[in-house]
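Worked example
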Amino acid sequence: MPRVRRNGGSSNTSSNPNRNVPKGQSNMRTKSAIKRLNMYKSGAPIRDRQGKIVGGDLLSKNRTGNKAMEKMARIAPNRRWFGNTRVIGQKELEDFREKMSEKVADPYAVLLRRRTLPMGLLADSTKERRMNLLSAESFTSTFGPNKRRKRPKLANTTLEGLLSSAEGRVKTFDETYDAMVDQLKINGGERDSVQEEIFKKGQSKRIWQELYKVLDCSDVVIQVLDARDPLGTRSKHVEKHIKENAAHKHLIFVLNKVDLVPTWVTKQWVAILSQEYPTLAFHANVEKPFGKGALIQLLRQFAILHPEKKQISVGFIGYPNAGKSSIINTLRSKRVCKVAPIPGETKVWQYITLFKRVFLIDCPGVVYPNNDSESDVVMKGVVRAERLENPDDYIPAILEKIRPQYISRTYGVQDWNTPEQFLAKLAIKRGRMLKGGEPDIRSIAQQVIYDLQRGRIPYFVPPPNKDNESCKERENEPESEKGNEETKKEFRNAERKKLDVPEQDFKELPQREFVLQAEAGSNDSLDEDSNSKKKEQASSESEKKSKAKETVTWDDLDI
């Protein structure tokens, strides 16, 4: 067997990394390159000129490749080699679907280690059938030298024929089958005006892209609702999207602005919404918050329930001006998000660190298109009052939904028959006048809408009359009644835990103080002499104002 030198020894061959490189030779291989090439050649057989193996590691019987074999090895056979699926009976599959669907539908039950269970078996597979084009037309009649071009069927091939057919349709036209004609008859022959662009705020493509970014990055989604109208500020579309496409994400309701409604209204809304998802009442205030400890305790539970994750992200979604950024500032006890009492202040999503393992995501307000009227959109605070073209058009709806005694005691105006008369009296009382002594209806209407959105006018949507004594019925229900014992026996690999939603003491719920006036007297007109008297008797006027105005809460009002 000829002797083969692997590393070149002390010679100056190209395979020797320690060879002497002459001065001026810059095109030779480096030491690291030679070692890398020698590594590729290690373990390869050594052949002679005829191609026969005469040496190398592969020639040895006690070696496999370049590793020595201590003893003979045998691979144990496994039946899983011959199939990539596991078989489950139909009865077991039905039991799995029934019991796991109950757990998945329960918002208070947290299913851990979802990857160990075949969650895809819960949904029936829907396969789309492709249309067989060859059954309609063969390949030879469509392509190739024997293809047949079909002439399109046109009702009229000339201009005269098109005109005659149009005249025939006019003669046979029946108005009873035209929905547009019926609508014009109902409206007195007038069409509805085109909706202003301001009412499409929160529905742009950019805003929805920001929303889906937050939903994709969040492990826990908090939907912020306005306590004055929880169902009106609730987005069913987002809830359906999370339930169908992201069932592993947790959804929580936070009822914000609870200081603007009575305590019993907050208690009933929390009881009603808790039947679907965990719900907490919250008052966003950096100095005197309510519900901050309960929300933090709930977020810590989610962090503990997911130990496999380094951190969890909590996304805040909801209508514009619902208080998402204010809640984040309250949790951090300082101003980390820009807030304002107007909708659309948050433009893009942003990350905020709450704890080491809990991150918060602020999202712009999103409005899902629904059947709400323009007045409903204005009362929800989606649009800004100063950007409305005709703000006085929405005052009638506001006066209908709010009690007259609240309006009269808030503004000190009484005895009005029409919304225009109310605005005129209020404009005269506030001194909002135009040239010629005309009341400024537009500016005073904007002020009324602004006061409603800021919560200066007592207003709320009453909850439905249902028996909701306990909002923890689903949580306090015994596990034996839900069949948890049987489920644990059959699915031992899956871990489930119940969320311990903290109980809130509604007796400590803060109440907003409304500045109301006692009884409106003959103050609806301006008097020039009274203006001069005010300057002379400033101290006496301040005492009268303090007596004329009073600060009350919902408990003091007659609801």
Summary: Residues 4-8, 467-496, 520-536, 541-547 have pLDDT under 50 and may be disordered. The longest strand covers residues 220-226. The CA atoms of residues 260 and 455 lie 6 Å apart.
